[in-house]
Amino acid sequence: MTADLLSQAAFAFVCLGLLAIAFGPAWREWRRPTDREPLKIPLDYSTDIEHFAQALRRQVTNALGERPLSGGHGTMLLPPTIGAVGSFDGPGPLIAKGPLTVLVPVRFKSPVYVGGDLCAAPGSVFSELLVDGAARLSAHSEVRGWAHANGPLTLHADGVALRRMSSRSVIELANRCCFERLHAPVIHFGGAASARRPDEGADRVEVSFLTVPGVTRRSASLFAVQGDCRLPHGLLFRGSLVVTGRLYIGSRTRILGDIKAHRGVTIGSHAEVSGAVCCDQQVQLSHGAVAWGPVVSETLVLLGRYAQVGHIDAPTSLTAASVMAESGSVAHGSVWAREMGVVWSN
Amino acid sequence: MLDAPPAQAHAAQASGLSTGDAWHRSDGDLGVSVVVTLLAAIVALMLVYAARHVLFTLNRLLGTQRHPYLDIDTATWPEVTVFVAAHNEEKVIAGCLSALLDTDYPAHRLTIVPVNDRSTDGTQAIIDACALEHPGRITPFQRERGKSGKSAALKDALPFARGDIAIVFDADYIPRRGLLKQLVAPFFDPEIGAVMGRVVPLNAGTNLLTRMLDLERAGGYQVDQQARMNLRLVPQFGGTVGGVRLSAIQAVGGWNDNALAEDTDITVRLLIAGWKTAYSNRTECYEEVPEDWPVRIKQVKRWAKGHNQVLARHGLAFLTSHHLSARERSDGLLLLLVFAMPPLLLLGWLLALALYFLNGSALLAQLIPLFALMTYTTAGNFAAFFEIAVAAMLDGSHRRLRLLPFNLLGFLVSLFAISASVVGMLADHVFRRELVWDKTLRYRQGQLK
User: Fold this and answer.
1) Which of A191, A258, A300, B142 is deepest in the core (most CB within 10 A)?
2) pTM, entire model
């Protein structure tokens, strides 16, 4: 054998040897499996808004069922009024069987259950909160985990609602409140606003999308535009629209369908979209604009004054990385700001 | 002795070679050059795929993850029809229907249509019993005749859909309670024509083959599909645990029952016409993977035939569609070519070996095939294993990665199976044979506990 052949054989042997090393652990794992279970998929998983509230309620029911209340699991009965500054901590829930008034800033590190109404002083901090009645959290209050109220839930100025906040009635967030995930039949940003009725009587002229320059038909009810699209004021369009650029919807114009734009959507004042609004970039609802939803943006949703998302009879979802809601705007259903949600006032 | 041109004859004399030898040498050099060029082209193509795999993996690890529709939990949910394709599925159909009946999707907006395609076992009896037990919720569709195959069966059943959205499941799938809402949510976006969820092998731990396939599936969905969604490329509709917009299907020519891979066919036709496919990584559903190598080989061959069929039919239209972005066009083309790569890869190996043996002792000539062989057998093909590794880590299942070297063997089996399929497909075309859909075997004995 020549020296070349010998060196090549040696090289091949070394390569095979290195490759074979990896088969050692492979062989062992095959013959004596240590990790072969299928990926766990919880079969009963669903997006239940009140999941945590229901879990706490069960915990409270079990605790209240003990006679006498043992406190052995860390549960504590709260007095109707808390007047001393401090913090409450422990493994079990803190239970107020009736209404609860917190007169001074208190930090609740344990879950709190209130069997009636809750009135919390400015600067109160809750980790988990379940209220059977109405909940009023004064200025600078914080909810660090979740909060649920069967009645109205109010967060006053400069409040912070991390994670989720839900109500079976209404959520009201004052100016400069920060939020992440909200869910209620009615969500008022910055103050109450009357629910908007469908604009039945407006004298809009119905036109086809095909009258708009650059619009082509993609299917029976879907139209498309390459580039930007500007819809004139005061018209009625039927069908859905996909725009590869930016979409500007003129004021008082109504679209009976869904819309999608890649580079931005601006819905003019008192304009209306009766379906979904989807955008890769920013979505802006101007003064009095309405989107029946869902509203989906991968960046930012701006809700102008008196803008409305969804309807009390047709709750929907608003989801974006960030949501900035001007005082007076309203949403019905879910609002999810994955990174930042804030209420502001001009 | 061959007649050589004068200049070459002179050169041959100067080097001490005979004229004939010089002529042969000249021909040989040309042949080697052609082989080297071909090999270089194949290597370059493999490196493109390698770069793609690495890009996807890095994106999955470090990039922004897109789940734009995942947070839609409240809405006026549209009418949906769920089709469950069933041909001799008595072992599994009850589990699928039971899971669908347990969904949190509004019952008055949901129609469940088991499509019994000429089953000869107890499938129909089980479906009928289920329909009786849940009146108004299950609408059986029985198919007695017609073209064979899932695609043809669904095409016959689709006119009975209520609403504009059709969700498709295979009978061995077990959708969880919230799955339908997650699959339907992307359809609020009017640009979405199809949606795909993630399939997870339920029988992952049965034997070595299923464990290897579990790793492959993880790489394909957890990394590859999600990265394509992140980068706005071309996520693929997989034909099950997914849905389609019926008006979009109608606009692009209807359901194609002449396609072996109707899922790829749909994805491409929708994309050509401007609709997108959304992938939802957190919409997971159990499935069964083949437990025997013959079944697996048959499955891979079917995929390869079907995929290449789509390439042949729609490749040109795909390249010339004005609805596609540059990145969609590039990625889509790579996607279409993926099952045409194995024969090229085999060819490349043969060329590299041939070059090695044809080039004597010249060091440079020896290095070219050696490095070519190394480059795309490591960076090229193994790059897909990078995806698998990261997928397993993301799933929290790192110990099963020890099996990764066995995936190399699995890859070799697929390589030859796909290559044989491509050859077979060309033969089908030449001899005008009809493509036949082969059903994959089911293994589960009872309902999921």
Assistant:
1) A258
2) 0.89
